[in-house]
Write a structure and sequence with these properties.
heterodimer, A: about 150 residues, alpha+beta, Pnp Oxidase, Chain A, seven-stranded antiparallel β-sheet, 7 strands, about 30% helix, elongated, B: about 425 residues, alpha/beta, TIM Barrel, seven-stranded mixed β-sheet, four-stranded mixed β-sheet, disordered N terminus, binds iron/sulfur cluster
C-alpha cells in the first residue's frame, strides 16, 4: 500500500461523527463530489467504498479510473476540526465474492439499499487538513504568508 | 472425445501493441478478449490451489470447449475491475494464456510473463444441493458471478436436418455431456423452480436469469413449441418472485409478434435476444443454413425490430459469434471489410432500438468450423469500440446484457461508462 492509514484515520473512518466525501473525475475531466459516502478501512490498509447505485456517476468514474489509472480524492472531517485528505486509486471492484456478500448482508440488514459494488481504494498520499495543524504548519513553513496587522499588539 | 487442432496464426499485433495503438480502450477489456481468443491452460500449481469448497468448478453448459473435453476444472475468471472472462480450457500447444500461481495468488501469465492477477469464480451455495428428484442443482442452473443460466433443452432441431450453424457444437456436446455426466437434455419446470428458489436464498449472489436452448421448429407456426417451452419454464421460475417481472433474458429463435406478445404477457420476462450470429446476409446463409432456410436473414432481422414494440428500446438484442464471419471459404476475406459490414448492419438495428453484442468465437472440435481460426485482437477491439459507439450515438442501453448480468460481451463491458 502506498500510504499508511494511521490509527487516527482509522478512528475517523469508524466514527459516526465523521463526514466522508469522495471526489472522482468524469470523462471530460470535471470533478464529481459526493458527501456522506460509506467508507471503511481494511486490515491490509486499503479503503472500501460501498456503492449503492450501479448507475451513479461515481461508479462510472471509478470504473474509468481503474481502467485508465485515474485517481480519486477522499476527505474525512469531524466536528472537532479533524480533517484529512486521502488521494488514492481504485484497485479492485468487488461485485461478487465473499467481501461483496459480507457487506451486502450488512447493508440489507440496516437499510433497504441495494449494494452494487465494493470498491477497494489504495491510499497513495494522506494530507492533514485540520485547521489547527495547517495553521501551525503554514506559520512555520511560510512566515511571509500573513497580514501585518496580525503581528501588531492588539 | 479429444481432438486438438494446431493453429498457426498470421502475424498480428500483441496485447501490448493493441493497447498502445488504442489508448482509449481499456487494457483489462483487451486482455479479456485476448484470453477468450486464445483460451487458458491451468498449471499444476494453480490446480493444486483450487479449493472445491469455495471455487466454482465447470458445470454443464450448452456448448463445448476448445479442448473438446469435460474435465473438472475451475469454471472461469474474474478480473480486478469486476470483468468476467468466460474462458475455454485450451490445449497448451495452441498457445493459450496460463493460469498460474504468482505470490500465492491466481494470475494470468503469458510467455512466462506476469499479466494480471485474477480470481476464480466463487461457488454459489446451491451447487452443493440436489433437487427433490435427485438431480444436482448445478445440472439445472449454471452460475456466473452474478447470473443464473437455465438451458431447458440442449437439442437443436436445425441439426436434425443437418442445418446447424457451422460454428456450433451443441448436439455433439450434449451427447458427450449426457454420456459422461448424465445431464438431462430436457429440464423439468419443477426442478428449475426448485433450483432457482434455492439459488435465491444466497443474498446478493445473482442479478439476472438467462434462458436459452436449441431451436425447436415444431408447432402450428414455426417455433410455437419453443415458445410454449419457454413460457412454461418462465412461469415456473416466476413462482419464486413477488413481482410480475424479474430481471431476465431470453436468447431464443426469432419469434413473430404473436409469439413475442404471449411471452411478454404471460411471463416475467424483461428482455429478448435472438441471435443473427453474423451481420451479412450472404455469409449468414452459409454459416447459419437452418436459420436461413426456415426464416431467412431479412425476416430474422425484421422480427428483432418488431420486438422493440413489445419489449422496449434497449431491451432487445442480437448476438454475434464474432470471427465466424471471417471463416473460409465463404466468409469475408479481410477484417476491414467484415468490420465495416458488421457495423453498418448494427447501426441499422441500433437506429431501430435493437442492440448488438458479440461473443469471441472459439472454434470448437465438435463444430463444422473446427479447423478454422478466430479473428485478431485488433479486430475485436475495433468491433467492441464500434458497437459501444453506436450505443452512445443512439442512446441505447444494454442493462440486461452487460458486464454483470451477462459478462460475455466485450462491447457491453464498455457500457459501464454509458
Ligand atoms: S440455432 Fe444455431 S447456434 Fe443455436 S443451437 Fe441451433 S445450431 Fe447452434
Amino acid at each position: 500500500m502506498g500510504a499508511h492509514l494511521s490509527e487516527e484515520i482509522r478512528e475517523l473512518l469508524a466514527s459516526q461523527d465523521t463526514t466522508a466525501v469522495l471526489a472522482t473525475v468524469d470523462a471530460q475531466g470535471s470533478p464529481h463530489v459526493v458527501a456522506g459516502v460509506p467508507l471503511r478501512a481494511t486490515g491490509e490498509g486499503a479503503l472500501l467504498y460501498l456503492e449503492y447505485f450501479e448507475s451513479s456517476l461515481t461508479n462510472k468514474n471509478l470504473t474509468r479510473s481503474i481502467w485508465f489509472d485515474g485517481k480519486v480524492a477522499i476527505a474525512l472531517s469531524n466536528s472537532q476540526g479533524q480533517s484529512f485528505q486521502i488521494t488514492g486509486k481504485p484497485i479492485k471492484n468487488h461485485i461478487t465474492g465473499p467481501l461483496f456478500l459480507e457487506y451486502y448482508g450488512q447493508t440489507n440488514e440496516k437499510e433497504s439499499l441495494n449494494l452494487a459494488a465494493v470498491w477497494e481504494i489504495e491510499p497513495l498520499a494522506i494530507r492533514n487538513e485540520g485547521v489547527r495543524f495547517r495553521k501551525e504548519q503554514e506559520e512555520r513553513t511560510h512566515p511571509f504568508y500573513t497580514h501585518l496587522d496580525r503581528l501588531t499588539a492588539a | 472425445m479429444s481432438h486438438t487442432v494446431k493453429h498457426t496464426r498470421k502475424p498480428e499485433l500483441s496485447l501490448d501493441e493493441v493497447v498502445a495503438k488504442y489508448p482509449h480502450f481499456p487494457r483489462l477489456i483487451a486482455l479479456k478478449i485476448d484470453v477468450q481468443r486464445r483460451g487458458v491452460h491451468y498449471t499444476e500449481k494453480a490446480l493444486a490451489a483450487v479449493d472445491y469448497s469455495i471455487h466454482q468448478m465447470r458445470s454443464p453448459y450448452l456448448f463445448g470447449s476448445r479442448d473438446g473435453q469435460i474435465k473438472d476444472l475451475p469454471e472461469s475468471l474474474l478480473l480486478r475491475d469486476g470483468t468476467t472472462i468466460l474462458t475455454d480450457p485450451t490445449p497448451v500447444e495452441q498457445d493459450p494464456y496460463l493460469v498460474d500461481l504468482v505470490d500465492g495468488k491466481f494470475a494470468l501469465v503469458d510467455q512466462g510473463r506476469f499479466v494480471e492477477y485474477t480470481d476464480l469464480w466463487p461457488k454459489p451455495l446451491y451447487y452443493d444441493k440436489k433437487t427433490s428428484s435427485g438431480i444436482p442443482m448445478s445440472h439445472i442452473a449454471s452460475a456466473r458471478p452474478q447470473r443464473l443460466n437455465v438451458f431447458q433443452s440442449s437439442y437443436c432441431h436445425f441439426w436434425a436436418e443437418d442445418e446447424g450453424c457451422k460454428f456450433c457444437d451443441i448436439v455433439t456436446h450434449t451427447k458427450q455431456q449426457k454420456s459422461e455426466l448424465g445431464v438431462p437434455s430436457r429440464l423439468n419446470p419443477g426442478d428449475i423452480s426448485e433450483t432457482i428458489r434455492e439459488a435465491l436464498k444466497e443474498p446478493g449472489r445473482f442479478t439476472n436469469i438467462c434462458l436459452t436452448s436449441g431451436s425447436v421448429l415444431k408447432g402450428k407456426e414455426l417455433f410455437d413449441q419453443e415458445v410454449d417451452f419457454y413460457i412454461e419454464t418462465l412461469q415456473a421460475i416466476g413462482e419464486n418472485f413477488t413481482t410480475k417481472k424479474f430481471p431476465s433474458q431470453l436468447i431464443s429463435s426469432s419469434f413473430n409478434e404473436k409469439q413475442l406478445a404471449r411471452l411478454y404477457e404471460q411471463t416475467g420476462l424483461m428482455s429478448y435476444t435472438s441471435d443473427l450470429e453474423v451481420l451479412n446476409e450472404g455469409v449468414f446463409n452459409w454459416v447459419c443454413p437452418g436459420k436461413a432456410s426456415k426464416l431467412g436473414y431479412q425476416e430474422w432481422k425484421n422480427r428483432l425490430v418488431r420486438a422493440v414494440d413489445i419489449f422496449g428500446r434497449g431491451n432487445v438484442g442480437t448476438g454475434l459469434v464474432s470471427g465466424s464471419e471471417l471463416a473460409q471459404p465463404h466468409g469475408f476475406t479481410s477484417e476491414h471489410d467484415a468490420l465495416k459490414a458488421t457495423l453498418e448492419e448494427a447501426e441499422y438495428l441500433a437506429e431501430r432500438g435493437v442492440t448488438t453484442v458479440f461473443i469471441v468465437w472459439v472454434p470448437r472440435p465438435g463444430s463444422y468450423f473446427h479447423d478454422q481460426q478466430n479473428a485478431s485482437l485488433e479486430y475485436y477491439v475495433q468491433l467492441a469500440q464500434g458497437l459501444h459507439d453506436l450505443r452512445v450515438k443512439y442512446n441505447l442501453g444494454v442493462d440486461f446484457d452487460d458486464y454483470r448480468r451477462c459478462g460475455n460481451h466485450p462491447d457491453s463491458d464498455l457500457s459501464r461508462l454509458l
